[in-house]
Design a protein that fits this description.
Layout (H helix, E strand, L loop, with lengths): L3 E2 L4 H7 L5 E4 L3 H6 L8 E4 L18 E4 L4 H12 L5 E4 L2 H8 L8
């Protein structure tokens, strides 16, 4: 089971981690250009969902990873995929960028 956190809980989760956090944005490039979060105490890595298997080596299995997409479904699938490859500290951001824009940063465009 993949832990779920709301965007409003994300910074608190980041603060509890002992290693640098990667926010893995699994949306398509046009989506990232349309609406993105700003890194604040974490690193953002953009790997579209379908590219994840081929680019798995770009991620550190020992670091905490939070997966993000538009509404939370694609990121949930990627998080589950990462667990199969021995990533141990993976969460899903419930509601995705849409929920982030509604609850954390109202300047993020909705699409």
């Amino acid at each position: 089971m993949i832990p779920q956190i709301n965007p409003s809980q994300f910074q608190a989760w980041v603060a509890t981690q002992s290693a640098p956090v990667t926010l893995l944005d699994v949306r398509e490039g046009w989506e990232v250009q349309t609406a993105s979060v700003t890194a604040d105490g974490f690193v953002i890595k953009h790997i579209p969902m379908n590219d994840t298997p081929a680019r798995l080596a770009e991620l550190n299995a020992d670091s905490p990873i939070a997966c993000l997409c538009h509404h939370g479904a694609r990121s949930q699938r990627v998080a589950q995929f990462l667990l199969q490859y021995e990533f141990t500290n993976v969460i899903n951001i419930a509601g995705g960028i849409a929920a982030w824009a509604q609850t954390v940063d109202h300047s993020i465009p909705q699409y």
